[in-house]
Amino acid sequence: MIQLQKLLKSLIQPVIAVIFGLAIGGIIISLTGGSVLQTYTELWNGAFGNFYFFSTTLARATPILLIALGVGFAFRAGVFNLGGEGQMVVGAISAAIVAYYLPAPGIVKLVAAIAAAVVAGGLLSVLAGWMEAAFKIQLVISTLLLNYIAVLFASYLAGHPFQDKTGSAALAQTPMIEQGAWLGKVFQGMPLHIGFIIALVGALLLWTVLRYSVFGYEVNTSGKNPLFGAYGGIHQVKVMLFSMFISGSLAGLAGGFEVLGSQYRFVDGALTVPGYAWTGVMAALLANSNPIGIVFTSLLLAALQTGAMGLERNTDIPLEIASIMQAVLILFISAKFTKQWWRAKKKGADIRGAA
């Protein structure tokens, strides 16, 4: 019962944020002379209007969900992994290279490619954690800067040594993976692949680990009260490195699934332009890093994006209206964290004054 109350509490915030976002969006639509009701009807239809659109929304939610789960897990441990974009991209390029060049049957290629994506994303994340532990380089800085290194390095690999020479010479992409190594579809002829099912299982597994395992207790304690955790014998560096690996591996898995289940090759820019990584960060923050709540916030943000595409197709309202709504969500998150920071600061001042 207590866990259900916590879950419902974690869902209240994104609901309120969406209401604010819709309200602000409605005001802007009215100022541009558009019909608010028609706009939001088309927004809904673009995301859930038929089974194909619904499948497209779930497919778009898959990388967002995986990245958000990784970000949320890191946040639970008190570490800030903002390198999801780079970790996703190295996972994607690793999966594409392994799936194409490994001399093995299709199913073996698929499993090996998924493993390569997980390891590549996890190791890149651990590199940032190691620099924090060894050289005191802030994770916020190192993970952000590693994004540029990872994205540009993957672009070089796709545009030079592993470029598909049979297509356009101007397009940086790897060769097409054989069909036997593709990730299966949930519904025949629909965009949704089984990576979404795996992501849902991953969310349930992370929730179970955080709720019932010793490691989950160490993660939560390290994030909420690191001094108490250190006093209780929790190895802070070990928890940080393990959390960073799990966080990065989920981001790498998101990139691998996009290659193996949607694009069937690595295409330069195909993962960075949609902004999956930063949408994942937003989904994690909206859900207060609750794995079950992240499932709903990821679906919500994915629906907002796919719905906006339908909105642009069928009305004169520009696609950027969804970006405005997302900006409102970001402001809502910022206001929440500012309020929490102010309360913590005031509480600390009261304690010092009493002492």
Walkthrough of the structure:
By secondary structure, this protein is mostly helical. Helix content is 76%, strand content 0%. It contains 13 helices and no strands. The longest helix is centred in the last third of the chain and has 35 residues, at 320-354. The radius of gyration is 21 Å and the shape is globular. 45% of the residues are buried.
Which whole number gives the mean pLDDT? 86
Strand content: under 5%
Low-pLDDT residue spans: 347-352
Backbone structural class: mainly alpha
Taken from the alpha-carbon principal axes, the silhouette is globular
What Rg is obtained from the alpha carbons, in whole angstroms? Answer: 21 Å
- The N- and C-terminal alpha carbons lie at a distance of 38 Å
- Estimate the helix proportion, in percent: over 70%
Number of strands: 0
